[in-house]
Write a structure and sequence with these properties.
With 187 residues, the protein is α/β, with parallel strands linked by helices. It contains 6 helices and 6 strands. The protein has one domain: Pyruvate-ferredoxin oxidoreductase, PFOR, domain III (Pyruvate-ferredoxin Oxidoreductase, domain 3, 3-Layer(aba) Sandwich).
């Protein structure tokens, strides 16, 4: 049996999480040749209702396409954190949008202001790409080069430069946390 790595991206409809899940899955499957399954679900209303995308990565065939106990939970709003936190593995990685998630009931998590970083770039709608950059930098689930290729292949024509900047903003925002993880494993 192969190594299974489960990622759940959660937020509300309109935050671009379904697209983010597709991009992550394409980076892993198309550009890295991993086995991958991507699933998604929306709440009662597409915009504003609960939304999640799941990506399961493996080095062997995947027998069940949905995340059972995610290794990573990325929560872009408080409601999604409250709804899905209990599914996260006890030693899993929790990443939240510091702009929209004011209360985290755990001691160990990473809070990055994805929405504010996207606003600083002039388009709140790229918060999903900012978050993807951070997620990839923190988990190494896919290489940053392959993630960039997948982003640029998927985003609307004319927005490539903005999305590239959003990806870089997310990667840069994750660097202090990634270095912290390295220090802990070295010391």
């Amino acid at each position: 049996m192969g190594t299974r790595f489960e990622i759940r991206l959660a937020g509300s409809g309109g935050q671009g999480l379904i697209l983010a899940g597709i991009i992550l899955a394409e980076a892993a499957g198309i550009y890295e040749g991993k086995f991958v399954c991507q699933t998604q679900s929306y709440g009662p209303a597409a915009r504003g209702g609960a939304s999640k995308a799941e990506v399961v990565l493996s080095d062997a065939e995947i027998d069940y396409p949905k995340a059972i106990r995610p290794d990573v939970l990325l929560a872009l709003n408080q409601k999604s954190l409250d709804l899905y936190l209990s599914d996260l593995k006890p030693d899993g990685l929790l990443i939240v949008d510091a702009t929209l998630v004011p209360e985290v009931p755990l001691d160990k998590f990473i809070a990055i202001p994805f929405t504010q970083l996207a606003r600083d770039l002039g388009r709140e709608m790229v918060a999903n790409i900012v978050a993807l950059g951070s997620l990839a930098a923190l988990t190494k689930a896919v290489t940053l080069d392959n993630l960039e290729k997948a982003v640029l292949a998927r985003v609307p024509k004319g927005t490539e430069e903005l999305n590239k900047k959003a990806l870089e903003a997310g990667i840069d925002a994750a660097k202090p946390y990634a270095q912290e993880k390295v220090k802990k494993t070295e010391g």
